[in-house]
Design brief:
The complex is a heterodimer of chains A (474) and B (212). Chain A has 474 residues and is mainly alpha-helical. Chain A is built from 19 helices and no strands. Helices cover 77% and strands 0% of the residues of chain A. In chain A, helix 4 runs antiparallel to helix 5 and helix 13 runs antiparallel to helix 16. The longest helix of chain A has 31 residues. Chain A is globular, with a radius of gyration of 21 Å. By secondary structure, chain B is mainly α. Chain B is built from 7 helices and no strands. The chains are: A mainly alpha (474), B mainly alpha (212).
Chain lengths: 474, 212
């Protein structure tokens, strides 16, 4: 029943919030639903839930990892949103909270669906729930961003549905499209149709993750969306899209198709890193810079999957790290943009003096997102690199190290420009406010914690998720 | 019933060509509506043993794809008072030729796809052809509204392919898919309306401000 609660609590709250005219009551619904969601997920960590509806809804280790990222990030974004809505009141404010809650409900559906067609329904719903929020400023630039986002994501997701039907056609035995049965009977599936299904699902979910060259919508959308929406997209939405891809990888590795699958994943991974590095050098918009950083991290995720073995462990750990780090970065940049009034790098100098709290967080985030010790991404990126070199792909290891170094230089140059120097424009006009600092501070502590210490229950869940992907814990 | 369903499938391909070859926006929407109606009849024709599942799927498709969405899109062009697709990226004759090649390719590919459940030999090639035509319309037309219709055609092709798996995909999920398509096209339609108000044009080619 708790699994159902994960879906119904946010959706019910979304409907209830829409009915209210008062902003305070809407905010109360947002916080209450976010808190209830966290409580349910926490209880699922303590006592696992049995599958419901004939195994359609179930929570395995992989789903739990993604669900935890989503719920923590959403709760912190909800607190941030209260502060944000005080300073900026977007048009169509009534729908704002309901769309956020609808997003929480649909991402939960993706995380707990073990029926792949149901997972598709949730995935498309996540796209649609965020679309009105991208367009919240109602100007030409956000109009262009939401159009690209809607068309490209919808077409990508449509191809994923095509792939899902191919998967159903390839299946000979077992209950249709249930992930457990697909994995158990994978050996008997028709290999030709299975491969076709993999290609379509990779293109579909890859578009939603923003893997290069399917990332065209990403910089525009992240650049124009409000920062808290971009935080949810880069942290939670991409994790869900990754989960969709991971489900197919589960089936492919169980079917013994690793030799076909891994080179394709490696190619997408390396190409994403190349594109991210190329566009991050000299990038003059802070939010677009972060969008390309997201392309980079999606590339790392599929790189780990493509390497297999301990690379898969690195990938699962990186899902956690990426979600937390991207949340930290976008919320912090959101605060800074509220102070400077722009995300154009040359006109936002001296942030350390104008907004000291956010400035320090941005500096910490810079080191976290580029994979420097002692932060979490360092551990997962190091594991993936170790897998590349240790498992017979030394060249991929070398190329990745070079590209990560280029990305570090590109990001550090831009962000240090923003932090130091003489403040331009009006002085500190906006107080940062604890509501908008609480989220990033907690996320910064989490990403630090993930780098220095993983509790035993978390390690155990990560290990189970790795094994389900056909990988091995180093 | 195979003859009847084959006839329906051939008509689906004809509506594909209608969409490719016509210049009038209202005509494009009418073609998409007709295709929606054909798709609504298909599950009934393919599965002669009528069940609640098949009837529900047909009825849902009829309401969403043949009535509500076309009516909504018609309203959008009336408000925008735009009639014609004036500047396609490739010409209409050329896109008809590309469409013909796509159909030929689809038949060739379908021959090599071993789908034991397909009720008629036409199902898979028609599905593939419709998917490709949807992609052609999406990429070669400059009016945002025509692109929405292209997305609808693409979804229709996938729907036809899904019919071969109708016994395996439960009704609830199909309803969910239909709902997603409905909401998706609805939001796109609203965005199209805003594009028109903002730029005095339905052309998505005007959207060029964001780049690196």
């Amino acid at each position: 029943m708790r699994l159902l609660g994960l879906l119904l609590v946010p959706l019910g709250a979304a409907a209830a919030a829409y009915a209210h005219r008062s902003a305070r009551l809407r905010n109360a619904w947002l916080l209450a639903a976010a808190a209830a969601h966290v409580a349910i997920v926490a209880s699922l960590w303590v006592t696992p839930s049995r599958p419901v509806f004939g195994d359609w809804l179930a929570l395995d280790a992989l789903g739990l990892v993604v669900l935890s990222v989503v719920t923590v990030l959403f709760a912190l974004v909800a607190i941030y949103a209260i502060g944000y809505l005080r300073t900026e009141s977007p048009r169509g404010g009534r729908a704002f909270v309901s769309c956020l809650l609808g997003f929480l409900g649909s991402t939960s559906l993706v995380a707990v669906s073990h029926h792949l067609a149901l997972l598709w329904v949730g995935m498309e719903a996540t796209t649609l729930a965020l679309a009105p929020l991208v367009y919240h400023r109602h100007d030409r630039r956000s109009l262009e961003a939401v159009w690209k986002y809607l068309v490209l994501s919808s077409v990508g997701i449509a191809l994923a549905l095509f792939g899902t039907f191919f998967l159903a056609a390839a299946q000979v035995k077992g209950r249709p499209l249930l992930i457990e049965d697909l994995v158990l009977t994978a050996k008997s599936m028709q290999p030709g149709l299975l491969r076709a299904a993999f290609v379509f699902l990779l293109v579909g979910f890859g578009t939603k993750m923003g893997l290069a060259p399917l990332h065209a919508w990403k910089p525009d959308t992240y650049g124009e969306a409000p920062s808290l929406v971009a935080a949810l997209m880069a942290g939670a939405l991409t994790s869900c899209a990754f989960l969709g891809l991971a489900r197919v990888v589960q089936v492919m590795s169980a079917a013994g198709q690793a030799a076909f699958m891994q080179p394709v994943l490696l190619a997408f991974g390396v190409f994403s890193l190349v594109v991210a590095a190329a566009f991050m050098i000299g990038q003059t918009d802070l939010k677009r810079l972060l969008a390309y950083s997201s392309v980079e991290h999606m590339g790392l995720l599929v790189l780990g999957l493509g390497l297999g073995g301990s690379g898969a462990y690195g990938t699962v750990l990186h899902v956690l790290n990426n979600g937390v780090t991207k949340g930290l970065m976008f919320l912090t940049v959101g605060n800074i943009v509220l102070v400077t009034g722009t995300s154009h790098v040359p006109s936002m100098r001296g942030v350390l003096r104008r907004a000291p709290g956010s400035g320090v967080l941005l500096l910490a985030g810079l080191f976290a997102v580029t994979g420097s010790p002692p932060f979490g991404p360092f551990v997962s990126e190091f594991t993936i690199l170790g897998a590349a070199i240790g498992q017979g792909h030394p060249w991929i290891g070398v190329i990745t190290v070079v590209l990560l170094a280029v990305i570090f230089v590109g990001m550090a140059r831009t962000i240090l420009q923003v932090l130091y120097g003489e403040p331009v424009g009006p002085g500190a006009d906006q107080r940062e406010g604890w509501l908008r600092l609480a989220g990033p501070v907690v996320l910064a502590l989490l990403v630090l914690l993930l780098g220095v210490y993983l509790p035993a229950p978390l390690r155990e869940v990560l290990a189970r998720a790795t094994v389900s992907l056909g990988g091995a814990v180093p | 019933m195979t003859d009847f369903s084959d006839l329906l499938l051939l008509l689906v391909v004809l509506t594909d060509f209608w969409v490719l070859g016509t210049t009038r926006l209202s005509s494009v929407i009418r073609a998409a509506a007709l295709q929606g109606a054909l798709l609504a009849a298909l599950p009934v024709a393919l599965h002669p043993r009528l069940s609640l599942h098949i009837l529900g799927l047909g009825a849902g498709t009829l309401v969403v794809k043949a009535i509500v969405l076309p009516a909504f899109l018609h309203r959008a062009i009336r408000e925008a008072s735009v009639r014609r697709e004036v500047e396609p990226v490739i010409g209409f004759t050329a896109s008809l030729c590309v469409g013909a090649v796509a159909v030929a390719l689809s038949f060739a590919v379908a021959q090599r796809l071993p789908l034991p459940e397909a009720q008629t030999a036409l199902l898979v090639p028609v599905a593939l052809a419709t998917v490709i035509v949807g992609l052609i319309v999406l990429t070669t037309r400059s009016k945002a509204l025509t692109q929405v219709v292209g997305y609808l055609i693409l979804e229709n092709g996938i729907y036809v392919f899904g019919l071969s798996q109708a016994e395996r995909v439960p009704f609830l999920v199909e309803l969910g898919v239909l709902l997603d398509v409905f909401v998706g096209v609805f939001i796109m339609g609203i965005v199209v309306f805003h594009i028109n108000r903002e730029f005095d044009s339905l052309s998505s080619a005007r959207l060029t401000e964001l780049k690196d």
